[in-house]
Amino acid sequence: MADQEKHQQLFIQLISMFHAAALQQMGKLKDPISDKIERDLNQAELSIDMLDMLTAKTKGNVTAEEERALTDIIAQLKLNFVDEKTKEQPKQ
Fold first, then answer.
1. How many whole angstroms separate alpha carbon 8 and alpha carbon 46?
2. DSSP class of residue 39?
């Protein structure tokens, strides 16, 4: 396997790890270790911020497929985050 292909697979795997972590931290997925739903929106926000940082740091150095995957995942996570954050707000 060529280095470029390997790096592409590893990059997709890395953003997938942050994606899964953020979903777990928002309480959207069970923690595979504890088998429980746990919420930590501060940690979820940090995971999303890490993906934003990866976007900035890799700009112009990723394939169109990698950029699209990263952009789509971040958009989905931000929408879910806003949804979870709204659940914390007291009803008026």
1. 23
2. B
